[in-house]
Each structure stands twice: as structure tokens, then as C-alpha cells.
Write a structure and sequence with these properties.
Length: 161
């Protein structure tokens, strides 16, 4: 097995990808709204749907990981995130956007619950505070990267006399 610090880096990237995906709808909302014919409330609903599966899946998420294994369940969650995002990318229908967001959110909830558990297993003892600090900071890093890469810059137009 790789060192637990290397695995922490892998978990950091995976959770950062989850944050990137969560923020992606808000980052492209100015373009997404008109192309879907969606209002700001609709876009807000689409953003909020990402964590809706957590209301049902967060508690049994640990049991799912115990039954099928932490790593396979995390890989399944990452696959669901990818499948949901591909569905959203491939279709411009509102129903497919909602379905894709729910699928991606289900995967996101699974990986969030299980990666936190994996981290606690690997870093039990005095290093847990450092490991958790690194892990938790993956969320704002993923959001910041999403905002930087996906948001169109609003440059002021320069008129020439």
C-alpha cells in the first residue's frame, strides 16, 4: 500500500473534484440559464439538488462502504459523479440536467462520507488533526479552481475614439 500521506493527496484531489463539480453549475449559470430557459430559481434548484441525496444516503453510506468495501464504493461514487456530469453535458433538456445532477450528487455524497472514514482510519492518533486540516481544505480549493476556470471574464469594453 502507498503511504498514507500519498493517499491523503489522492483524497484531496478527489474531494477537490467534487467541489469543482458542485460549483460548476453556479460558475456557468450566466450561460446555462438562457440556454436551458431557466430562471435564477431554477439554477438555484439545480445547485441544491447536488446534496439532496445526502438526506437519504449519508447515514447508510458507512454501512454501504462496510458491505462493499471503502475503495470500491469510493470508485463507484466517482463513477457516478462522472456519469452524472456526462449526462448533464450531453443533454440540454431540463429533466436530464436534474437527473444528471442527482446522479452526480449521489456519488459525491458517497465519496464524502467514505473518504472521511478512510482518513480517520489511516490517521488515528496525533496526526489526525493535520490530515483532516489538509482534507477539509480541498473543498475551497476545488471551488476556487472552478470559479477561475469556468467563469467567463467580464472585461470592460474599450471604445476607441
Amino acid at each position: 500500500m502507498r503511504s498514507r500521506w500519498t493517499m491523503l493527496a489522492v483524497l484531496f484531489v478527489a474531494r477537490g473534484a467534487m467541489a469543482f463539480q458542485f460549483q460548476s453549475v453556479a460558475s456557468v449559470a450566466p450561460q446555462l440559464g438562457p440556454s436551458l430557459g431557466a430562471s435564477l430559481a431554477d439554477i438555484g434548484l439545480l445547485i441544491g439538488l447536488y446534496f439532496a441525496p445526502g438526506a437519504v444516503l449519508a447515514s447508510p453510506g458507512g454501512a454501504i462502504g462496510r458491505r462493499f468495501g471503502d475503495k470500491p464504493t469510493v470508485l463507484c461514487g466517482l463513477s457516478m459523479m462522472l456519469a452524472g456530469e456526462l449526462l448533464m453535458t450531453a443533454s440540454m433538456s431540463w429533466g436530464m440536467q436534474v437527473a444528471g445532477r442527482l446522479i452526480a450528487g449521489t456519488g459525491g455524497v458517497l465519496i464524502n462520507v467514505l473518504m472521511t472514514k478512510m482518513l480517520a482510519d489511516w490517521f488515528a492518533g496525533r496526526e489526525i488533526a493535520t490530515a483532516m486540516a489538509v482534507f477539509v481544505n480541498s473543498w475551497p480549493v476545488g471551488i476556487a479552481i472552478s470559479l477561475m476556470l469556468l467563469r467567463r471574464s467580464k472585461r470592460p469594453s474599450v471604445s476607441t475614439p
